[in-house]
Amino acid sequence: MVNGLTKRTNGLPSRSLSIGQRVKNRRLELHLTLPDLADKAKISKSVLFQLENSETPNPSLETLNKVAKALGVTIAMLLDKPGIKAKRVIPDHVDQCLKQMIASLKKERTAVNQAAIDALYVLQEREGAPKTEDDWRWLYDTISLKLNQRKR
Q1: pTM of the entire structure?
Q2: What are the two backbone dihedrals, phi and then psi, of residue 6, each rounded to the nearest 5 degrees?
Q3: Which helix (H) or strand (E) holds 50?
């Protein structure tokens, strides 16, 4: 068994495990009971039981994320998929105040956190998005700070 997520056949990993089997194997590898993992993942025991034992589980992305975090693995590992890299997309329309804020960052000659800028591009499409350059800057600074904390 490799990280409880795949089984070995003739020394080679087998991809035949279901998502439920991968979750259960990893849980057992970590010496967690089903109730322990449910508590750690902040999901109900019945949802976790269904995920582990159903022939056709259909968990939400939120549930998968919670379980993966609690098990110390990625969703891709649970789904037995290679890691996914998102392609950087610059939207067709960028809010004018957001453009101004990005321009002011460049004028400051400080390193621009492109991941934070990409997050702002997504957020501009949401209802209640910032309306002023100062609001965009505050949000940029907050996202950058959080991203930098994760790197440590």
Answers
A1: 0.50
A2: -135, 160
A3: helix 45-53
Euclidean distance between CA atoms 52 and 133, whole angstroms: 48
SS3 state of residue 109: coil
E strand or H helix at 9: strand 7-9
- Tell me the C-alpha distance between 131 and 129, whole Å: 6
Phi, psi of 13 (to 5 degrees): -65, 140
- Tell me the sheet residues that pair with 8: 13
- List residues bridging with 13 in a β-sheet: 8
Q: How many CA atoms lie within 13 A of 11 on its CB side?
A: 0
pLDDT of 10-34, one tens digit each? 333 445 788 999 999 999 999 999 9
CA atoms lying within 13 Å on the CB side of residue 79: 14
**Residue 115 DSSP SS3:** helix
CA Rg, the chain, in Å? 21
- At 91-126, the pLDDT tens digits run 888 899 999 999 999 899 878 888 889 889 888 877
For residue 119, give both structure tokens.
Answer: 């997050």
